[in-house]
Specification:
Blueprint (H helix, E strand, L loop, with lengths): L1 E2 L2 H16 L7 E6 L5 H11 L14 E5 L5 E6 L8 H11 L3 E5 L13 E7 L5 E7 L27 H5 L2 E6 L4 E6 L2 E6 L4 H15 L7 E6 L6 H18 L3 E3 L4 E2 L18
Parallel strand pairs: 2-5, 2-6, 4-5, 8-11, 11-12
Antiparallel strand pairs: 1-7, 3-4, 6-7, 8-9, 9-10, 12-13
Helix pairs in contact: 1-2, 5-6
Length: 283
């Protein structure tokens, strides 16, 4: 199934929930696989709406989990293990919720694969060159969910650090992802991932870093077709510098700009997660 817009992703999530609700043997654990900005949170928003939830659903990227009481008395719990290589106590929390038959949606599940039940449903969201998303569904009960396609899903992997161009960057469009929320800047150009311990050089050298990596892939600024930015929480200085760069690039190149939840923006404002740490002037 091909999804061409945010609205279609919401409708897909809603239909998926409604189809699952009519199937009493449906798995209650859903694993979402997809790159940053692929639309996983948008899917969950539609999925929650299909379960009857009317309150706002937001990403648990920095709280790790969020739970929502559903009208039928059940609970929807949404996990995001992106920042956790070792889930620690959150693994125990997930085990308990699986045992209590919560409806569970999990993103970035590599660190807790051994906890997830084998009969979970796996949904993989993949970018196409034209910016659309392809939805592949694996129902591990070996049955097809009514009204939805059946397809194989691959293991979720974060892109390894690489150098040099690939076929995707030589021949296709270039989607840029930037994360400056920590001292290690992460840049993605399609399936290429680069890491840079920027230290105090971020403001001075970030544009050059991006340009150098585009050049390695035989590309230039004009080849960028969309930008996704990790908008926070995180480093105040890093987010401020990164947001300035992506806002300027998107404006000058006239290309779409998204936050890491897949929401489109004209201008991205950093989410610092706290008040700015500004020193009081000396008297």
């Amino acid at each position: 199934m091909i999804i061409k817009s945010e609205q279609e992703m919401l409708e897909f999530g809603e239909k998926f929930a409604q189809s699952m609700a009519t199937d009493k043997t449906a798995a209650t654990v859903i694993e979402l696989i997809g790159d940053v900005g692929a639309g996983k949170t948008t899917f969950v928003r539609g999925f929650a709406r299909g379960l009857g939830l009317t309150s706002e659903v937001t990403s648990p990227s920095f709280t790790i989990s969020k739970s929502y009481a559903l009208p039928d008395g059940k609970t929807l719990t949404h996990y995001d293990f992106y920042r956790l290589n070792d889930p620690g106590l959150m693994a125990d929390d997930l085990k308990e919720k699986i045992k209590d038959n919560h409806i569970i949606v999990v993103e970035w599940a590599n660190s807790i694969k051994n906890i997830l039940p084998k009969n979970r449903t796996i949904i993989k969201i993949t970018y196409n060159d034209d910016g659309a998303r392809e939805m592949n569904i694996e129902d591990n009960r070996n049955s097809t969910i009514e009204g939805l396609p059946e397809a194989a899903a691959e293991d979720e992997r974060r892109s390894p650090v690489k150098t040099g161009a690939t076929d995707a960057t030589r021949n296709g469009t270039i989607r840029l992802f930037l994360d400056t929320s920590t001292p290690t800047t992460i840049l993605k150009l399609n399936d290429q991932t680069y890491e840079w311990n920027s230290g105090h050089d971020l403001a001075e050298k970030l544009l050059q870093f991006i340009h150098d990596k585009l050049t390695e892939n035989n590309k230039d600024w004009q080849d960028l077709t969309e930008i996704t930015f990790m908008s926070g929480p995180g480093s105040f200085t890093g987010l401020r510098i990164g947001a300035t760069i992506v806002n300027t690039l998107a404006h000058e190149l006239q290309i779409p700009l998204y936050d890491h939840h897949g929401e489109k923006h004209k201008i991205i404002l950093p989410d610092y997660g706290r008040g700015a740490n500004i020193s009081q002037p000396k008297k």
